[in-house]
Design a protein that fits this description.
Helix content: over 70%
Number of helices: 18
Strand content: under 5%
Shape: globular
Distance between the termini: 51 Å
Structural class: mainly alpha
Amino acid sequence: SALHARLAETVDARHELMGDMPAASVAGILACHWNAAHDVPRALGASVAAGLASKRVLAFSEAQRHFERALELWDRVPDAEERAGCDRADVLRHAAAAAANAGEAARSLALARKAIAEVDAQADPMRAAFLYERLGHYSRWAGETEEGFAAYQQAMELVPDGESPQRARLLEYRARGLALRGRFEDGVEGAEAALAMAERCDDLSVQARALNTLGLSRAALGEIEEGIALLRSSRDLAAEHRQIEKVMAITNLSDVLDLAGRTAEGLAEIEAGMEALRANPERTSYDTFMELQGVNLMIKLGRLRELEAALPAPKFGDSVGTTPILLAQLRSLLALLVGD
């Protein structure tokens, strides 16, 4: 314990001793040493800092571990908020986001519900609305669709009347949920409303998402070329600003191209998208889902010999999330196709 304390003090005082190690890695090392030194207050602060640093570089599994450790220590530190630089609700919010991106769908729901319980919706309605929006999003990934719609509605009731990026984002999330349930006409209506509001509010992230939902819905209604054009617009807009939105657009674009009989073209979109992700430290739920869509298209093209190498790790996330279920399904399908 004394050795870990000395190491933590030294690294904390002289970051240059770590050479060109990324800041996120230095933060993780500090969290590890303060925890091993049993210095609970410093371990809590370092764990939150390491979680935020990991989240910024898209290392979500590592971020979740750091945030969960901070939450375990929270009640043992009298000045926890000062050490963490935020309150418990914020740590829970960050932990939920990290868990969702790491494929831990059930855990993300539990953490989001705890975050909501920490916030007074009457005193801080916008913060509560954001947390309900996140709960709705995570519910959809966990297959809890009705709970997701209810959470979106609660968020909408908390957002002040009038146009805002928050209201546009909620409109888009609800439209996407409807489209994914096969209610494509409702998806078009909701996505168009979200897109128009996002354009007036100059929110490029929501614009990219709304174009995605609109393209998917129009293609499903038989307007294939219009849907493809909208999805490409979503992909290109997101490429400049938001990686998650770009991955979502590519995944849906490849699916529509496949349905249009252009499976090889759809696979090329996936391969280009995966190439752009190679520098990331971890695969997220979105990245892995896109990768699995590529596997699905390779099966359709009869490229079975290449498939084992193309599949992600044998396990990703928990057993209830959309991405882990798709991985299990494709592994089963591949085994059947090769006679196993």
